What does this fold into?
Amino acid sequence: MKLKMQRPQTGLLAAMMIMLPLSVFADSVKIGFVTTLTTPASVIGEDMRNAVNLAVEHLGGKMAGKEIEVIFEDDGFKPEIGKQKTDKLVKKDDADFVAGFIWSHVLLASSKSVLDSGKFLISSNAGPSQLAGKGCHPNFFSTSWQNDQTPMAMGEVLNEQGIASVYIIAPNYAAGKNMVAGVERTFKGNVVGKDLTKWGKDRQLDFSAELAKAKASGADGLFIFYPGSAGGAFLKQYQQAGLKASLPLYTVFTVDSLSLPKLQAGNIEGVLGSKSTMFWAPDLDNAANKRFVADFKAKHGNYPSFYAAQSYDTIMLINSAVNATGGDLDDQDGLRAAMEKAEFDSIRGRYRYNKNHMPIQNFYLREVVTDAAGNWTTSIVSTVYENHQDSYAGECSL
Amino acid sequence: MTVNRPVDWHLLVSQLLNGLQLGLLLFLLASGLTLIFGIMNFINLSHGAFYMVGAFVCATVVQATGSLLTGIVLSLASLLVIGAAVEWLIARKLYQNDHLDHVLVTFGLILVFDTLAHIIWGPAGMVIPLPEILNGQVRVGSFVIPSYRLVIIGNGLMVGVALYILITRSRLGMLIRAGASDRDMVTALGVNIDRLYLVVFAIGAAMAGFAGLLIAPITEASIGMGNEIIIIAFVVVITGGIGSVQGAFYSALIIGILDTLGRSYLDDFLGLFLSNQAAETAAPALSAMMVYILMATILVFRPQGLFSPSGLRK
It folds into this structure.
């Protein structure tokens, strides 16, 4: 190529072009977001997508002056499809950040594709022990929690409430096992029985056998973990079995703003007053959360779920990093250092990152109540853990 | 978990009832499937879609009118129409084709029904609110049984008896039996086989819908709910003998009870030989497989299934 420099301006322009980092020409921040948009679990995916879109709207569609481009992909509730879609986001779309991931088994199947390519992976929900412990990675971050933490908080609640024995029912997959391990780690009483039920596309939704066993076990309390629509099914059958008085219910990730409206429509009053633990609740008192919950409700008519809250934070975390490097997406160390600081107004209030890039944060006890408008929602009762660290950080060599 | 505890009879009876309830639901699905398979030699994967539509229509009507009975009646009526329409417009043209074509077309139908359900009802699924009395429990002596489970058992048995009378005592039933064992001869005798097929298909669809609307108050009406259970329904059909309603009844009960008892006792049972940890891990996997192991075992000894209409030609 011959380039005659006829005018000094042309030379100046050429020099400027060489000096500027390449990324300035990439005029957008590309975020791949893997979630579930088909199957009944798409209720969760839709809620997350709504929250991501709200976050983008709150940012005025720009991070450090660059357009935000979010590419949503559907994992179909299957690890193999999640991995395919992740590969597509990494290779074809060349996304700068890959985020989302409801399911631990989908995240575990997909994480290698992202991390091997040198891109950032941000979990907006799943928190498998593998990625928090030995498999931790400098480019992996979470805006949710490690799977064990929420049930660990529940174990403490059970101790405080003087529950001497529990029966445990959970689905048989990576997160289900983490939840059981979590509650068993802190609960000091007796686990009198445990059932792990079939999970995945042909998951078990009739829990008659398990409920009969739980009742016969004579336990003081019932601990369950059933995310998505399976939770609604479980709670209905719990009510129909008439166990509310004899076998009080303690849940994690089961009673949320996705299941409650349907339970209310079905008149399943057994769920009112039931206790769950969580790092967040719609009524958590801070400015960022108030704005998020109010705008989400105004737009979609219902309370945001915790999935939505975490997804909103995912975008805000990315925004804080992109702003810190002045929009330079090639400055990996700068982006990472900025994300490690977590300097943004999270819907949970300020939190810190542990060395494995899992949040160090509070966990609260929540109870199902009726709000002023007559809708069922969860409300914070007390703080169970302050600045809680997950148990796997020690295994992380970062 | 303690292993050497005495057998808890209360628990055993509750689990048998739970197994009976699951078995009867499977029977409602499988009886239609086995008739369609046995008489028309037609593999209908979309049978699970009828199950889903039954649940959604009933949920919609109940939420709008507040009447469970209206929901059930309208749901069954709409499935008779849908079943007849699918037979008339689609299935009828395919009876002469081979099974692969049936599978392809009816799999396509599943996608059509699932997507339509997504468009009409959204992804969230719907609940069927129950009257207070059905959300409660019934006490019999020292037993406490969820009353809605008894409703399912009662309805399942009622449909079973009605079907038995229909098939053994009525003219239609005679034709169905004849059609299942020798299709060509029935046609040769001048029976309007088209109309017979239409009626059987519509009844089958309505029974699948009935199963769907019975289970929905326990779980919920959700997209793809039928695809989860249709596989087991096929296992029931094959184990019971293709085309045999009687076989479907017994094998559905055996499979329902086996599955429930597997889920309840397998971990204790495995605990006798394995460590608690290993038993805990192995039990869910093994109990999910038990139904298929049963099918394989039965087919080794009786390749035609437990009951088979005599002279059924493939």
User: Anything to note?
Assistant: The first helix of chain B runs from residue 9 to 40. Chain B has a mean pLDDT of 88. The radius of gyration of chain B is 20 Å. Chain B touches chain A through 49 residues (CB under 8 Å).
